[in-house]
Amino acid sequence: MSQTRSQNEPEPADSPPRGFFTQLTQSFGMRITAAGLTFAVVPVCTHTLGTKGFGEYAIAMASMNILVVVAKLGFDTATLRYVAQYRSQGEAGLLRGFVSTSRRFTLAASIVIAIGLAGVTMLLQERLLQERMSEGVFGSLLIAALMLPVVAGIQLREVSLLATGRVMAGQAGGVLMPLLLMGLIGIVPAVTVRVLSSASVMFLNLCGAVITLGVLLAMTRRPIGVSSGGATSGGASAESGPSEARVGEWLSVASPLLMAQLLNLLLNQSGTLMCGSLIGTEAAGIYAAVARVSSVLFLGLQAINTIAAPTIAGLFHSGQPLELERYVRRCSLASFAFAATFALVMLAAGRSVLGLLGDEFVSGYVPMVVMLGGLALASAAGPVIQLMLMTGRQWDCITVFGTMTAISLLSGYFLIPSYGVLGAAITAAVARIGTSLALLVLARRRHGLWCIAAPLPAAPPPISAPQSAAA
Predict the structure, then answer these.
(1) Which of 208, 222, 259, 247 minimizes the C-alpha distance to 74?
(2) pLDDT digit string (tens) for 260-299?
(3) Distance CA 201, CA 331 (A)
């Protein structure tokens, strides 16, 4: 039986296989820790910088985070797919070629985009917005340009680690960076006896990012090996490096993955933007707070997606449809269990939680309940987005995301002016449910399986080892 497992299931080449719940526990623990540290950074920064300074810092960070998504060119999601695929198939040469190509293209794109950000910032400062752009925003944006390639490198190496089953190492950046930033904010003023500006905090964040990248470089120094059932990591693959055709294939897959990421980002952020433009910044603030609290419901799914993507790719490309369905249903059950539990807790404690943010935010309780209901139902679809992306159905995701974004914008245009934050919450809930339902139907049509929180299909009978392997 052990031989059968090594022949048919992808395993980390450098560590023993671990169970689903072990990996889920590790991933969820890292997610919770990273979320808690990220939240802790906010009061530290606001206390250090004040409202105006924190706004300058937030503008720079938001600009950089959006551009990082573009700079990765979709190779972060493609890495989860191709690394798992090539490892399970024993394609050592293609594996090394893909990893090298993805890093080179991402580095080049991030440098070009960073230069563009710095150039646009200086152009706006000198010619267009001399009176409107503060020195703090100007300096923070320039440092954000320097930080952009570093963050892109961190995130790409994290997904490389995740693709090989190193769950905790693959989420180290989300823990190290906020820890380092808070530590430097506490140490530097005490040593230099100087008040920190927004640009100074941005520079400290850059220093923390460089240290984090160094740690991840050390973790990924060893070449990624293939699974024991395939070719050896020394290069038994028929192809020793990427051909022009392969590079074109990788780009043709990564590009729509990038488009899907951007559309999904727009779908998730449209509520705040529409509230701000249609009914004012106060409503946008309340909606943003409601959305932030409600998004905790998806921590379980995010932890699951972290470990699910490479496993889905490995099972799909090694031809195990029944095992694949059992795995995605198990993920969906775990996702829905966490989401439903959190929703029930927030039904009881939601007003108190919102009250911690300020008395004015308590009015968002009803919109929060609506949003939680929609997100909980959507969570029953589990990793359906990862299922489609990891199995080459990225264009289906683009179609669904694009359609639901258009529907969300159109419905929000009519609902938000009439119902305020509640209208935005209804729009968001319907968009989430609609996206999940559409992808569930497409997954059933494309792959003949249901990615839902439902009883698992019967376990398959043991599979004997292939004759070629036995020989």
Answers:
(1) 259
(2) 888 877 777 677 767 777 887 677 777 777 887 788 887 7
(3) 39
Q: Is the pLDDT of residue 222 over 90?
A: no
* CA dihedral of 435, 308, 152, 399, whole degrees rounded to 10: -20
CA distances from 249 to 252, 256, 286 (A): 5, 12, 44
The pLDDT > 70 percentage for the chain reads: 83
- 181 DSSP 8-state letter: H
Report how far residue 196's alpha carbon sits from residue 186's, in angstroms, rounded to the nearest whole number: 10
Residue type, 134: S
Output the pLDDT for position 129.
53
Rounded distance, CA 315 to CA 329, Å? Answer: 14
d(CA 139, CA 199): 5
- 120, containing H or E segment: helix 92-123
Alpha-carbon span 309 to 386, nearest angstrom: 6
Instruction: Give the Cβ contact number of residue 68 at 10 Å.
Output: 23
Residues 265, 205, 199, 104, Cα dihedral to 10°: -60
pLDDT digits (tens, 9 = 90+) for 78-126: 888 888 778 877 777 888 888 888 899 999 999 999 999 999 888 877 6
Residue 193 gets the label, from left (phi > 0), alpha (psi -120 to 50) or beta, of: left
DSSP 232-263: -TTT-SS-SS--HHHHHHHHHHHHHHHHHHHH
**At which residue do the structure tokens 């910032």 appear?**
121
What is the dihedral sign for C-alpha 399, 405, 406, 407? Answer: positive
Q: Among residues 17, 289, 383, which one has the least CA distance to residue 164? A: 17
- Rounded CA separation 233/92 (Å): 6
Are the C-beta atoms of 408 and 267 separated by less than 8 Å? yes
Residues 430-458: tens digit of each pLDDT: 999 999 999 999 999 998 888 887 776 55
Dihedral through CA 144, CA 149, CA 155, CA 158, nearest 10? -130
Token output for 384: 């359906």
Q: Is 356 buried (19+), middle (13-18) or exposed (0-12) by CB count in 10 A?
A: exposed
Minimum mean pLDDT range among 386-390, 400-404, 466-470: 466-470
Give the integer Cα–Cα distance in Å for 346 and 283.
Answer: 21
Cβ contact 201:57 at 8 Å: yes
Q: Stretch 323-327: mean pLDDT, rounded? A: 88
- Rounded CA-CA distance 391/387 in Å is 6
